[in-house]
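Two folds, back to back.
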Amino acid sequence: MGIGRVCLKIAGRDANLQCVIVDNLEDSYVLIDGQTRRRKCNIAHIEPLDQVIKIRKNASHDLVVKSFQELKIKARTTKPKEKKDRPKKKRKTSTT
């Protein structure tokens, strides 16, 4: 399967959601993004559709979202987590 091919995820937590192939990783794995989470996926778990998006290899999530908007498909958007200061660990002191 080629980069830019729109697919339907058929297994797992993101089943029945559309995605696009962003990169070919190994023999039977690809990197997907779109309505699904951006992640490594076995090609046996996706079914290719007729649509192809013109994107480059390792395209950013923003480019994938724009391409999906052109096809009138809503892509997954996530908010970055807010950074929180961790409390500093106090050293245990021995009382002798």
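---
second:
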Amino acid sequence: MNAFRHGHATHPDWRMATELALAQLGDDAVRPSGGPEPLGLVYLTAPLAPHAADVLGLLRQRTGVGHWAGTCGHAIVASGVEYDDEPAIALMRCDLPEGGFQVFSGSRPPPAAGARTASGAVAAQAALVHADPGTPDLAELVEDMAVKVASGMLFGGISSGRVEPLPQIADRVLSGGLSGVVFSSEVDLRTRVTQGCAPIAGEHVISACSSNLIRSLDGRPALDVLLADLGVAEEARTSRDGAALMRALPAERVRAGLFVGLAGGDDAPSRGPRPGFGDYLVRNLVGIDPHNRLVAVAALPREGDRAVFCTRDARAARADLVRACTELRDELETDGLEIRGGVYVSCVARGRALFGGPSAEVGLLHAQLGEFPLVGFFANGEIAHHRLYGHTGVLTLFAGPRDAR
């Protein structure tokens, strides 16, 4: 991989916003003759979404780059800044190996399983995925897409914004279904999921459950385990009075709600590439039953699944994002790599609402990882690996050797 260049701007006129963003790419905006074809990524806020086709046409005209992918977000991300509910554009030109990517959509499927590039690389190793929120059976489509890439690694999110239809860009403007970019195994991608959670205590194994009810954990009544994890006084834990139990809960720990992280029991706890809450699907804890000593969750758990009770707030979100960045930084350092560019997809409920200020979330990314070209958007749901998430951030980095410039 060679150069990644990016630009971003806000302006009520779509043409001026696009020209201002392109100007930041400088001479590197124009595709050189004879080299591998670059990939362009572009994200628009809702006020510019009706002009998506015009934007795409201007980008091709100014740069000579033919392949572009992106979508619309209520807010979008660029290096060091979040554009929230204002007309804005963020774009990035990615120089990748020959045959290193293919734009896909409903009318253009990804490479077939087992396909190879001219250099012998796996043609479909990982994928950036954009999705329409109105698509039926979206979770199943995401799982099916993950099967189509060799690593099972997807990253991306569901389009957002107060506009219909929500445009996706996949070499043309479209809506509905899935679209994005499939990358070959020659493109080095590193990703982390941050769910903004802090564990209350340790991990448990679900020993009995039905529907959305967890009946027992580690062979003990689930509610008893939850109360013990929360540090509720032992004499109060056995109460069958729901109001009394609620009063006994530590207010400072449950102020932002209670959640449970679930992970398949067949998958050992990850201590390598994806440790921490990236292994868990975090869902709300929606109720307790003091008489039957069970808890209800917004999910369908299975016996043998791993579970951990957790809280989510600004402090936990900052700590978990720092954790994700630290792991990536250490991983790249160990492998002798550097960041060429990145894509960050965060939940519409995060950003300033969770981190307490404009651009605080992406500012923390750069404080931890340094300056690098970054684009992305705030999504109606986030896509990571083979799952749909909520209230998460998905950070994916394009990496390359430090001495390969």
